[in-house]
Amino acid sequence: MIDISNWDYFYKLDYRGGHQVPTNMLYTPKVNQEKNIMCMIWDETEPYQKENTKITKDLVDFFFARELEFLSKFQKFSWAPKVIDIDIPNKQVFIEFNKETLNHIFADKTRDINIECPDWQDQIFKILQDIVDSGFYKMALYPHCFFIDENKKLKTFDFYSCSEQSQRYLEISKIAGMIGQQSVERFSSATVDGYLDFDIFFKNTLKTHLSGQWPINPFPEFYERLFND
């Protein structure tokens, strides 16, 4: 068991105010003092999640299982962070990390992603292409879901948001607790007869949802290249 008692909570930065905000509504991220390992703590009672009053143990357990499933499936790809350890009893997943995410670069007006990682768009497209070509979708595609490793290679995480293309439907009632007020329309537009359609959801994410989430947004172009629409 890895001792995380002196590890720090990890936050993303608000683009407007520059203040720290939680990265997600499901797990609590902590990083070690060297900032090269992230621990995902799947525990709805963590103080980090105190504002998420709708999050239940069943919901967290559901997405914890998905994280383990898809993190394992993608380990063969170089853009998937290496698994350091998995503590099933404590529902903790340890992955490689590198101090910050793309969110922190975009939020700092003194930095330029095109200088720090000139081919970042090509790398993200390759990640998406690998995922789609392998028969999957990934919904969490925000800047804080990507980091640059020590070799200037992009890696992505938050695989709980993935789905197999052959199993594209999910009862929306199963995940209702994670749908915030600002996301209601996004989910409802991809819901048919009570089932979330991940095919619609993923394509809508690329075409429209990430506008405003990325200061530089290449995803509509990625959609055209992936699906030739």
Question: What features would you describe in this structure?
Answer:
With 229 residues, the protein is an alpha+beta fold. It has a single domain, classed as Transferase(Phosphotransferase), domain 1 (Orthogonal Bundle), CATH 1.10.510. It contains seven helices and 14 strands. Strands 1-4-5-7-6 form a five-stranded antiparallel β-sheet, with no helix packed on it. Strands 12-14-13 form a three-stranded antiparallel β-sheet. It has a two-stranded antiparallel ribbon with strand order 2-3. It starts with 7 loop residues before the first strand and ends with a helix. The model has no long low-confidence stretch (mean pLDDT 94).
Brief sketch in words of this structure:
This protein has 229 residues and is α+β, with helices and mostly antiparallel strands. It contains seven helices and 14 strands. It has a five-stranded antiparallel β-sheet, with no helix packed on it.
Taking pLDDT < 50 over at least 5 consecutive residues as the criterion, the unreliable ranges are none
Strand proportion: 15-25%
- According to DSSP, the number of beta strands is 14
Amino-to-carboxy terminus distance = 49 Å
Largest sheet: 5 strands, antiparallel
The number of helical elements comes to 7
Order of SSEs, N→C? EEEEEHEEHHHEEEEEHEEHH
Under the CATH scheme, which architecture would be assigned? Orthogonal Bundle
* Radius of gyration using CA atoms only: 17 Å
Helix content: 25-40%
Mean pLDDT: 94
Overall structural class, as computed from helix and strand content, comes to alpha+beta
Any idea what the shape is? globular
